[in-house]
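Have a close read of the entry that follows and walk me through the local backbone shapes. See right below:
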Amino acid sequence: MTTLKNKVAIVAGATRGAGRAIATKLGETEATVYVTGRTTRHELSPMQRRETIEETAELVNEAGGHGIPVQVDHTDEQQVQQFIKKVKKDQNGQLDILVNDIWGGDPLTEWGKDIGEHSLDMGLQLHKQAVLSHIITSHYAVPLMKKNNKGLIIEITDGTDYQYRGNFYYSLAKISNIHMAYATAQDLKDYNITSIALTPGFLRSEAMLELFGVTEDNWEEGAKVEPHFIASETPFYIGEALKHLALDPQVRRFNGKTLSTWGLSEIYDFKDIDGTQPHWGNYYEEHVK
């Protein structure tokens, strides 16, 4: 397939980074894409970032799709319920793709602190944003897919296995996202609904560029701060990966699995926005592990 015209997608957590790129790439397929998040042109989230859901929707439109920005705090059950009611009404009950990308956990993660030292409030808030929000969103969105007996659910995570990720709360959240994809696949095995976890490699997001004091034009300089940054990838790489999954008529062969940008680049032969084909899996085995 080359188009998702007349298909409806939700990218939950599409204000910036991977979510924004995923929404934009779905726009390239001519899909209708609801982009949600907390930051609008009139109201900042606690993240205090400048990117907005309206900007993301405009990028979807420019790419060829139909972007619809809706302010939603996905940790608020009532807001999510009302949002899904809106989608159901606007799209006559149709929902084809759900991407759970809500995160916002960077300022809540205290690296270098163990479970007894880490702020409990921040750790629990991280899980509220990165795990509970995904559960709430799926709870209200899945019935639309079940009614139509079709759909694709993607859980965005970090890593492909159950290994420790350097911080108790961070590790538990990302592994939870992986198991959520698997458990959802088992729950919905009698429906034509595919559930997958998808991870990027070292993501070269807007926030990461700022952290290292570089731009996309000179991003390699960031490797002077963090050597492994040299193997990083832009958010558009995971956007491209998800676009190929969404267009694949045989995507159900991946049901319940955890996939990666680098692995899918070998299957679908796509490249990052700069023409490279980063492979964090190989780099990790050779230089990090």
Observations:
- The chain has a mean pLDDT of 96.
- The longest helix spans residues 120-148.
- The radius of gyration is 18 Å.
- DSSP finds nine helices and seven strands in the chain.
